[in-house]
Amino acid sequence: MSAAVVPDHPWLLPGALTPEARAPRRTPRDWLVDVVAFLLALGWALVAFGDAVSPNPQFAHNAGPSWLVGVDLLAGLACCAALWLRRRWPVGLAVVGLPLALFSVTAGVALLIVVFTVLVHRPLPVGAALVGFHLLTVPLYTAVRPDPSLPYWGTVAWTVMFIGVVVAWAMFVRARRQLVLSLRDRAHRAEAEQQLRVDQARQLERTRIAREMHDVLAHRISLLSLHAGALEFRPDASPQEVARAAGVIRGSAHAALQDLREVIGVLRADTAGGDTGPERPQPTLADVPALIAESRAAGVRVTLVDEVADPADVPTAVGRGAYRIVQEGLTNARKHAPGAAVAVRLAGAPGRELSVEIRNPWPVGPPGPVLPGAGTGLVGIAERVTLTGGRLTHGRDDATGDFRLAARLPWRA
């Protein structure tokens, strides 16, 4: 016998599949292995029968009674034929073949192949029980078919040793195949975990894009609303003022559409599993003056006090967070306190903190038309600040009565 006697099937781990799944369709390799196993068992049966009927006493020493020779041949041939069923019912064949182990010489190799199959492919307690029963039959077999050339216990020891070699070989094949299955399972699991990490990264990227779009679009749409409201309430405005307002509205609408087009393209590419392409440069603290200028061009009264010596020294994540905080503060001021003056202050140095503060007077009088919103702007800003390890406060300042949005972001040296 060889390790190829037991083919490589997906039912290597016992009890993992149903009996139907444990007998897959034979592959060409399976047919080759089964043919080799059948020929080995049949060849041994014919050799053993030839020895039993040989006139030479040296070969016919343990033939036993004459009637037993014919019965032994039939039993051996039946076991050889039954090997074609060992893939589906190895345990049943092993149990049925136990009585033959008491007297049959011709069925010896076929029975060992069946036991080998059970040890490799079925739970170890089942295989151990079958091996134990076969070991119990060895003394009885030796008594029925004695070997004159060896003493009784010598024959028993030789037979037990041969069975032990087959068991050890089967355990080695079983351990090797289970190791292969374990490595294959680990590879599949690692691949699945990698895919899960990729999916999570995509989901996080979609969430980040949604947050960025909320900040950007809220800012642009508030500019649109501001100028549209000015045109609505000032029908007597000069043509120059109307043209300027219309230009800001057109520019803001074009920028908002461009932002929407980009985010939709990114999300579609992500859904299709394609490459999203390079992203636009993200804003940093150095872009805050341009943001202030954009709001001033829209007619918002904004003052900026920038006490940061070199904005380029601010870490990228911290600078982007500060930019979004200022952007959200200006958007809230335009929404809830239209026409109010807004004060923005930036301060900080490496090794300390970056302080961002936006103030505007608390609105008085009846509330005007309010832009619709999701109400999650400050929530998103708070989460952004928390992720950078900073602190955020917002609300009415009891000392001045202004609305104050302030954040302190860590600025490591």
UniProtKB/TrEMBL annotation:
Give the stretches traversing the membrane.
31-53, 65-85, 91-119, 126-144, 150-172
Q: Which residues form a coiled coil?
A: none
Question: Which residue ranges does the record assign to the Signal transduction histidine kinase subgroup 3 dimerisation and phosphoacceptor domain?
Answer: 205-270
Enumerate the Gene3D superfamilies for this protein: 1.20.5.1930, Histidine kinase-like ATPase, C-terminal domain (3.30.565.10)
Citing just one GO molecular function, the answer is: ATP binding
State a single Pfam family of this protein.
HisKA_3
User: Keyword annotations for this protein?
Assistant: ATP-binding, Kinase, Membrane, Nucleotide-binding, Phosphoprotein, Transferase, Transmembrane, Transmembrane helix, Two-component regulatory system
Q: Which InterPro entries match?
A: HATPase_C_sf (IPR036890), Sensor_HK_TwoCompSys (IPR050482), Sig_transdc_His_kin_sub3_dim/P (IPR011712)
What EC number is given for this enzyme?
A: 2.7.13.3
Q: Does the keyword Kinase apply?
A: yes
Catalytic activity annotation: ATP + protein L-histidine = ADP + protein N-phospho-L-histidine
> Where is it found, in Gene Ontology cellular component terms?
membrane
Task: Name the PANTHER family for this protein.
Answer: NITRATE/NITRITE SENSOR PROTEIN NARX-RELATED (PTHR24421), NITRATE_NITRITE SENSOR PROTEIN NARQ (PTHR24421:SF10)
The name on file for this protein is histidine kinase
